[in-house]
Design a protein that fits this description.
This protein has about 725 residues and is an alpha+beta fold. The chain has 3 domains: about 100 residues, no CATH class; about 450 residues, Up-down Bundle (Growth Hormone, Chain: A), CATH 1.20.1250; about 110 residues, no CATH class. The protein is built from 25 helices and 12 strands. It has a 5-stranded antiparallel beta sheet, with no helix packed on it. A 3-stranded antiparallel beta sheet has the order 1-4-5. Strands 2-3 form a two-stranded antiparallel ribbon. Strand 11 and strand 12 form a beta hairpin. Helix 5 runs antiparallel to helix 24. It is elongated and about 100 Å long. The N terminus is likely disordered. This is Solute carrier organic anion transporter family member. One of its GO terms (biological process) is sodium-independent organic anion transport.
């Protein structure tokens, strides 16, 4: 007969007593073995709730043992002893199967002694932090840093890019109910590792549109031509009489609609599918991973330890935005095309950076990070035993009710479990509070870099650096502060809710100040001001780039190419300014850091739309130069300081709300409660929020990219409306 496996084996000698039993009949079972000879061998000791249990087995040919309790003796088989041990574990509130599975670190049969030092909760938390860092880098950082580049590359608006961003939540929503309900009884570390591999697969899928699509081409201008540079080309009678000629460039553009349909819909679908995979992969990290930690540490230590996971996840966007800022300085096709021939710089509105490179890098790294999780055991016995001894003597409200051994075994029990949570008023109110917080975080953070880019007229790389370097660290420190205060003040659920209300009140005050730290609209003829208006004219009008001065030019709005007129008004393009000639000044150039010439500053002449400033008697020449006119705004520093404060205070509520959620349900319900909370958060916050913010931002667009009478990405925003609607939505939800 096979020998029963020793449970919670320790190195204690057989005579050591952990707790003295109370007076009366002994409640500690001493298991001794007798055989055909006197060769007795004790295998180990295990403890349950502080009591000593010794297990001794004889050589393999021994089939019987004697168990003594007080003065009574009876002969039983080793199988009987094994079943009694399992029954004692059930009475203590634990699943015996968890204790009988392999408890060593390793892969398959390869479990060397050197790996066993990793079989502890601290090592699990360490690798969880790394996984959270890089998963957060993709979903909340890098994708948001390249979202405006993706819009420009595939000619889509903020509404559609918001759908792509929300697809992460669709993926998580599909998986979270089943993963959280059934996963709590399965091998949690392996499920977390599988999640990491799915995120990696999603990251690789993000790069497919770049490799499947044709090379990116600049549309709407003639930047490689020495004869034409997006200038006004009025057809003459001679050109119209030539065979095959067309009346306007506009009609030629319409002919191109049939021949050069972009077909970007398939690439958008791939991006959505990639986001879904990333969402599915991230599900076990924050539901099962959090529960695994809470199950292996004392209750008073759980908030601060789990806070490290959430803090590193919040730190992920710093890595994502930083990498985005770096890679967007390289041209999208830099490895297959010499972009220097385009005479473009990163400051040019038509620049498209290497948005796909970060996904390739993160996908490779996540494969390596996922591997260690497959080596962790299902249960970390040393940490679990320490937790049992630590919680011994605490009240039931502090430790929690005993586990329901039947919970989470069959799919038919899911409706009963859902009803149990829906009857929990504290749980539901906490979920709705979390939804309000995360609706802000999800929608606001998705478009934060875009807001900074357009509001303060800086390039995408700089916007990503400021977002990742200022806003995200504020969120990280806020999460850590929340966990620290929960542990330091030993806050119960009521105290955690009070702390949340105080932090939210302070955040609202900071957001009100943010509304007044923005910039005025740049003066762009036909977009933010009429062509005929002077510098001091503030007449209300509807944006229209076509005027009598450029009506015959048939200008394209496929791409923006700003120029500055001699009247200090910016024009959408040389064509829209009515310029008919240009020349390049070889002494006036733009250089990179290595002193390499990237482009010449072009000067435009005979610009019919550049007229005399009506507010003065100065006659302005019809001249312009490439690039927008200077636009001064002194509120950037104040904005970043207040932004740090807003994210710090908002993130500080995350750990208190998480602890209220976990303490408002029974222990066996925690994984499923977190999973259901994720479902509610996705339905009410994560999914609608980016779409809502994206639609709101689109309402502030003044000039849309046009192709075949269809809108592409937005080229010019009313940044004053952008500010009040974007930040106002944050304030309203808060």
């Amino acid at each position: 007969m096979a020998e029963p496996r020793t449970l919670l084996s320790t190195a204690l000698p057989p005579t050591v007593q952990i707790d003295s039993p109370p007076p009366g009949p002994p409640n500690t079972l001493e298991l001794s073995a007798i055989g055909k000879n006197d060769n007795m061998e004790q295998d180990g000791i295990f403890t349950i709730s502080g009591q000593l249990h010794t297990v001794a087995t004889t050589p393999s040919d021994l089939n019987e043992t004697v168990m003594t309790n007080d003065s009574q003796s009876e002969f039983v088989t080793t199988t009987d002893i094994h079943e009694r041990q399992r029954e004692q574990l059930r009475e203590a509130g634990f699943d015996p199967d968890e204790f009988e599975e392999g408890r060593d670190c390793g892969y398959g049969k390869c479990r060397p002694d050197c790996m066993q030092t990793c079989a502890n909760i601290k090592m699990f938390i360490f690798v969880m932090c790394i996984l959270s860092l890089f998963s957060g880098s993709i979903s909340a950082g890098y994708f948001n840093s390249v979202i405006t580049t993706v819009e420009k590359r595939f000619e889509i608006g903020s509404s559609l890019s918001g759908v792509i961003a929300a697809s992460f939540e669709f993926g998580s929503l599909v998986a979270v109910i089943f993963v959280s309900y059934f996963g709590a009884r399965r091998h949690i570390p392996r499920l977390v590792g599988i999640g990491g591999l799915l995120i990696s697969l999603g990251a690789f899928m993000f790069t497919l549109p770049h490799f499947l699509a044709e090379s990116y081409t600049i549309k709407g201008g003639f930047i490689n031509s020495t004869e034409h540079d997006n200038i006004c080309k009025i057809p003459t009678s001679t050109s119209l009489s030539q065979p095959g000629s067309t009346a306007t460039l506009g009609s030629a553009a319409m002919m191109n609609c049939v021949d050069s349909e972009s077909g970007n819909g398939i690439y958008v679908f791939i991006l959505i599918l990639a986001q879904v995979l990333v969402g599915v992969g991230g599900t076990p990290i924050y539901t099962l991973g959090t529960t695994y930690i809470d199950n292996h540490v004392p209750k008073d230590k759980a908030p601060s330890l789990i806070a490290f996971i959430y803090a590193t996840s919040a730190l992920g966007p710093v890595v994502g935005f930083g990498l985005g800022a770096l890679l967007l300085q390289y041209y999208v096709d830099a490895f297959s095309y010499d972009y220097r021939t385009l005479n473009l710089t990163t400051e040019d509105p038509r620049w498209v950076g290497a948005w796909w490179g970060g996904f390739l890098l993160f996908g490779s790294v996540l494969i390596l990070i996922a591997i260690p999780f497959f080596g962790f055991p299902k249960t970390l016995h040393a940490d679990l035993e320490a937790k049992i001894l630590k919680d011994k003597g605490k009240t039931e409200s502090e430790v929690g009710e005993p586990k329901d051994d039947e919970y989470g075994k069959t799919i038919k029990d899911i409706p009963r479990a859902v009803c149990s949570l829906l009857r929990n008023a504290i749980y539901l109110l906490t979920c709705f509070g979390v939804c309000c917080e995360l609706a802000i975080v999800s929608g606001f953070l998705t478009f934060l870099a875009k807001y900074i880019e357009h509001q303060f007229s800086i390039n995408k790389s700089q916007a990503n650096l400021f977002t990742g370097g200022i806003a995200i660290p504020g969120a990280v420190l806020g999460v850590l502060l929340g966990g620290f205060l929960m542990r330091k003040l030993q806050l119960k659920p009521k105290g955690a809710i009070q702390m949340t209300l105080i932090l939210n009140g302070l955040a609202i005050g900071v957001m009100v100040l943010l509304l007044f730290t923005g910039c005025e609209n740049r003066k762009i003829a036909g977009a933010t001001m009429p062509y005929s208006a002077g510098l001091d004219d503030s007449l209300e009008f509807e944006a229209n780039l076509t005027s009598s001065c450029n009506d015959a030019c048939s200008c394209s709005t496929r791409a923006i190419d700003l120029i500055c007129g001699a009247n200090d008004i910016t024009y959408f393009s040389p064509c829209h300014a009515g310029c008919t000639h240009f020349y390049a000044n070889n002494n006036d150039v733009v250089k990179d850091d290595s002193d390499r010439v990237l482009s010449n500053i072009k000067n435009y002449t005979d610009c019919s739309c550049i007229v005399t400033n009506s507010s003065t008697d100065i006659i302005v020449s019809q001249l312009a130069r490439s690039g927008p006119c200077p636009h001064e705004c002194k509120n950037f520093v104040y904005f970043m300081i207040l932004l740090f404060g807003a994210t710090f205070l908002t993130a500080g509520t995350q750990m208190p709300l998480l602890m209220v959620t976990m303490r408002s349900v029974a222990e066996e319900e925690r994984s499923f409660a977190l999973g259901m909370q994720f479902v509610i958060m996705r339905l009410l916050a994560y999914i609608p929020s980016p779409i809502m913010f994206g639609n709101l931002i689109d309402t502030t667009c003044l000039v849309w990219q046009k192709h075949c009478e269809a809108n592409g990405s937005c080229l010019v925003y009313n940044i004053e409306q952008f500010r009040f609607k974007y930040l106002g939505e944050f304030l309203q939800v808060e």
